[in-house]
TrEMBL record:
CDD domains: NmrA_like_SDR_a
Top-rank lineage group of the source organism: Eukaryota
PANTHER family documented for this protein: NITROGEN METABOLITE REPRESSION PROTEIN NMRA FAMILY MEMBER (PTHR42748), NMRA-LIKE DOMAIN-CONTAINING PROTEIN (PTHR42748:SF10)
Annotated InterPro entries: NAD(P)-bd_dom_sf, NmrA-like, NmrA-like_oxidored
Family recorded in the similarity comment: Belongs to the NmrA-type oxidoreductase family.
Protein name (database record): NmrA-like family domain-containing protein 1
Length: 297
């Protein structure tokens, strides 16, 4: 039986890399890994694992068309740009070509169009653009499943790591105002997508909200404390206060947390069905114990 080839865009990034590696372990599939830099170490590593690594740029229609010719399906993750129209244009290009070339299944890393859902009350640009692309895929009749990720656990190890306060303790600044927030390791998206390609019936034409676990800011802080040995507490901050902190895109991120407080549809049970080994936050921190050693220094 011939392998079904899946074109994986952004194959050297976090999501695309996870998907490419998972599919390479998945019987019946081969991977066409798409990257702008075929000589980078992550691309070479995928080639050594058996992927066909090809150069591609979502701004290049001819290149994307060649990439999609002859494939069974594709995994698409688009990146937010300062000019929001660029991400939407790139997503629409893949949708148009997928329809023309007759791809059987596209899995898109989407999100809600928050601005549309809230009647313009909230704008979350890095969500809204992906929501527009989702809608376009379905309008064009392309067989597509959208996977909507929860908050990345990995964010807690970088930009949103606990910060030292004046008393020498640490604050986890998460403006959820007591509402639990879904989370998941981005590294776990690959096996979920693999399951969708293996068993597409019932998922094509739908958006699936992914989540490993749903915790309050206080619970995230407690687990951080347990794994680091430091006293970490959740900061009592509102989304309004957060929006005025002055860092780039603070208002957009405050809107994102406000949207999270509306409890968007993220299905923990389905996520575990699609990938029974999906990690909870405790397991994620345990796996990243070496990072945690230096995280708060």
């Amino acid at each position: 039986m011939a392998c079904k080839t899946i074109a994986v865009f952004g194959a050297t990034g976090a999501q695309g890399g996870s998907v490419a590696r998972a599919l390479l372990k998945c019987p019946g599939f081969s991977v066409r890994a798409v990257t702008r830099e075929v000589s980078r170490p992550a691309a070479i590593a995928l080639k050594n694992l058996g992927a066909q690594v090809v150069k591609g740029d979502l701004d290049d229609k001819e290149a994307v068309e060649q990439i999609l010719k002859g494939v069974y399906g594709a995994f698409l993750v688009t990146n937010f740009h300062t000019c929001k129209d660029k991400e939407v244009t790139q997503g629409k290009l893949v949708a148009d070509l997928a329809g023309t070339l007759g791809l059987k299944h596209v899995v898109y890393s989407g999100l809600e169009n928050v601005n549309k859902m809230t009647g313009g009350a909230l704008r979350v640009a890095h969500f809204d653009t992906k929501g527009e692309v989702e809608e376009y895929f379905w309008e064009k009749g392309v067989p597509m499943t959208s996977v909507r990720m929860a908050f990345y656990f990995e964010n807690f190890l970088t930009d949103l790591k606990p910060v030292k306060n004046a008393s020498g303790e640490y604050d986890l600044v998460l403006p959820m105002e007591g509402v639990p927030m879904d989370g998941m390791a981005v590294a776990d998206i690959g096996p979920v997508v693999c399951s969708l390609f293996q068993s597409p019936d019932g998922y094509i034409g739908k958006a699936i909200g992914l989540s490993a676990e749903r915790l309050t800011a206080e619970q995230y802080a407690e687990k951080f404390s347990k794994h680091t040995g430091e006293k970490i507490k959740a900061s009592k901050i509102s989304t309004d206060e957060y929006s005025k902190l002055g860092f780039p895109n603070a208002e957009a991120f405050a809107n994102m947390y406000q949207f999270y407080q509306m409890k968007p549809d993220r299905d923990i049970k389905l996520t575990h069905q699609l990938y029974p080994k999906v990690k909870n936050f405790d397991q994620f921190l345990t796996e990243n114990k070496d990072v945690l050693k230096n995280l708060l220094k």
